[in-house]
Batch of 4 targets.
Target 1
Amino acid sequence: MSSTTAIRGARYWIRRLIQAVALFTIAEFSYYGIFRCPFAVPYVSCANCPVVQCPGKQLWLIVLLGILASGLLFGRAFCGYACPAGMLNELFSKVAVLRGKVRGKFAAVAGYGKYVAAAICAVLFFGMHNPRWAVPIRTGEFVNSTVLTFEHAFPLWLIRTSIVVGTLLLGLLIPYFFCRFLCPTGGVLEILGRFSPFKYRVADSCTDCGKCDRTCGLETRPERDNCTNCGECRSVCPVDAIHLGTAAKGRGPQSTA
C-alpha cells in the first residue's frame, strides 16, 4: 500500500469515526429539536424548555459553543463531520436522482436560502424572544410523545417541521438539498468559514478539470460555498492542487460550477 493510499484511508476513517461519535452523542438531541421542541427556533432555548426528557437540557450549551468554535476555526466542518442531518443527507446523496443536475444560476440563487433562513431565525430568537409554537410534552413514551407534540402543535410549528422534514427528504432527489439551500446553521457557518484559518484550499497548479466538484456530494470545491472541508476531493485531484492549510498557495482558474 502506497503512503498516499494510506493517508487517504486514514482521512476517510477519521471522518467516519468522528461521525459515529457525533451520532451517538447528539443524534437524539437533533431528533428532539425537530420533532419535540416547542420553540420556533430549536436547540437555543433549552435552558427554559419544559421538555425534561430532551438530552439538550444538558448538551445544548456545549454543543452550541462547539459549533461556534468549529465554525471560527474550520468553517462548515461541523456539517461534514458531526451534523446528524448532514450524515442523513450524505446517505441520501448516494441514491439522489438528480445528482450533478442542479448547478449554475439556480444553485447559486437557491444557495441564498440558507442565509434567509438564518436571518429569520435571528429575528425569531432575538426580536421575538423565540415564541413557543407547540404545547411542550414534558415526558412520556418516545413515539407517543412525538405524536402528542404533533397533535397539540400550532399551525406555524407544523409548517416549520414540515418544511424541515420535506427539504431533508428532497435530498433523495437533489443531493444535500437541505444543507445547500436551507439550513440556517449552515448559513451561519458559511459566513464564519469565510474567515476561518484552517480549510482545504486550491493552489495555482489547479487545471480546472472539475474532478473535485464532480466527486463532491455537495457539488462544490474547496473555498467555495457549501464546502465542508471533508477532504474527499483531495484524492481525485490529478495535479495534487488541493491541500489543507492556513494560507492559500494561490488560486486556480475560476469555474462557474
Note: Confidence is low (pLDDT under 50) at residues 252-257.
Target 2
Amino acid sequence: MAEFEQEQENLTPESESIQEQKQENLTPDLDAKIKELEHELAVSRADFYNYRQRTIKEKSQTRQRAQEDVIIEILPVLDNLDRALESAKNGGDILSGVEMVQRQFINVLENLGVTAIKSTGENFNPALHDASGTELTDNPELDGKIISEILRGYRTKERILRPSQVTVGKMAN
C-alpha cells in the first residue's frame, strides 16, 4: 500500500496521461471479457435449468412406468376375480374361486418383492408389529408373544409397508 501511495505522489502530468491511456486501452478488452463471461454464465444457467427440467420429467416418467408395471401385474388377478364372481352367479363354488384369486394375488405381491410379516406365535417386535391390545395369560411362554393377528402386515427387503396389527400376551400377576 505504501508503494502505491508513493507511486501516486511521484506521478507527473505526463505519467498521469500515460496511465489514463493504458486504462483506456484496457477498458475495451475488459468490457469484452466481461460480456464474454456474462454470456457464458447465462448459457450455463440455461443449461442447468434445462437439466433440472429434464430430470424432473424423467423422474415423473419413471414413476408412471413403475405404477403401470404394477397395474399390469394386478390385472390378471382382477380378471380371475371377475370370473369367480361370474361363476358364483351361475351357481359355482365362490369360495374356491376367491381362494384361487387370493393365492394369485399373493404370488403377484411376492413377484414385486412384498412378503407378509410373520406374527402369530412370534415375539412382539415394535419395528414389525403394532400392538392393538394385550391379552392376559397364565402361560409364561406367551408373555410378550403375539397371541393373534388382527391385520396382516407386509414388507419389502428395505421397508415395512404396513406393520401387522396384533394382540400381545401379557402375564397375569
Note: The chain has three helices and six strands.
Target 3
Amino acid sequence: MNRHVSNETTVKLLDAAKAAREAAYAPYSDFPVGAAVLFADGEIISGCNVENSSYGLSICAERNAMSSAVTRGYNNPIAIAIAGGRGMPCPPCGACRQFLAEFNENMDVIIEDINGFVVYKLSELLPLHFNLQSGREKK
C-alpha cells in the first residue's frame, strides 16, 4: 500500500486526534472520539464527537473535523487519524466514510489500536461509495 504520510507525521496526526478526543462531548455513549485531518501543506484540523439527547443530531469526530476544515478553506485532505476509546480501534462509521470520500477517496485513514496504529486507504474501507457522477452517462 502506498501511504501519503510518514510514520513521524502519522504519530503527530494521531496525537492531534487524541488531544481532540479530550474535548469530546459524549455524555450518552461515554465513548469520546477525536479525529485530525491532514492537508498537503501540513495543516492539521481536528474535531471531536458531539452528542445530543436527540441522537440523530449528534455528529461524529470525523465529520466535525472535516466540516471545520471546509470552513477554513481546506477541502482536499490527504489523511485522517481517529482516536476512540484508549487503544480500542475506532474505524469511521459508514456515514463518515461516505462523507470523507466526497473529498478524497484515496486518503490514508489512521486508526489508533492497542499496538499503536493501523493505516488503511479510505477506498479500502468504502470501495464503492455513492457518487452522482458514477451513475450518469458521459456527455
Note: The longest helix spans residues 7-21.
Target 4
Amino acid sequence: MSIIIHAIAIDDEPLALQLLEQYAKKLDWLEIDATFSDAMEAREYLENNSIDLLFLDIQMPDINGVNFYKELPLKPEVIFTTAYSHYAVEGFNLNAVDYLVKPYEFSRFQAAAEKARELIGFRQTKEAEEGFLLVKYNYQWLKIGYKDIDYIEALDDYIKINVKPKPYLVHMSMKVVTEKLPPEKFMRVHRSYIVSIEKVTSWNKNTITIGDKTIPVSITYQKQVQETLNKLMEESGG
C-alpha cells in the first residue's frame, strides 16, 4: 500500500527544524505539513488538523516535549529528537517510534522515519481492510464506515462527509482524504467532490446522481469516471 506520511515538527531551534525539513524532502513519501518553534502554537495546530507523525524536541524552554506529548488528547506516532540521550527511556515508555539524538545524520533520520512509515502503513492497511475512515471530529477520533458514506464535498479548509442521518464537517483537505480512501470504493469526480462508487444511482457525461443529490462531473475527471462506471456495468453484466 503506497502511502504519504503527513508530519509536523516541533523544536525551539530553527536550525534543527531546517535540517529536519531538508532530510524529509529526500523522502518522497514524507511530507512536513508544518514546523513550530513554539509548542503552544503546535498544540493549537494539532487541535484542528490530523497528522500521522510528530517529530518532537524534548528540551524546550517552556515545556518538556515528553510532557507535551503526554497531554495530547489524540496522539500521532512520535519520534523524539533531543541532544540529551538520558531522556530515551522515558521516550520509549511512551511507545515512541524512535529517538533521535542530535546531531544525527540523514541515514539515522531515514531509518527512524521508515519505522514510522511501517507502523502507520500497517494501521492504515488495517483500517482499509476493516472498511472505515478515521477522522478527527469534535476533539475525538471518529470511525465512519465506507458503506455509510454517500459522497464527500470540499468546503474551503474543511470537507463535509455526507452520511445518514447527518453529515460530518471535518477539518481535512480533499488531497488528504483522497489518499485515505480506497480507490476501488471511491472516485474523484470534481475538484470539490468524491463519491462512493456503489452509491451512484444514475449518471451521464456531466453529472452523477446519488439519491436526490446531483453532483457535477468536471471535464478533468470525465474520462476516468466513465471508465470506472463502464467497468462497474461490465462486472454487473449490464
Note: Residues 106-130 form the longest helix (25 residues).
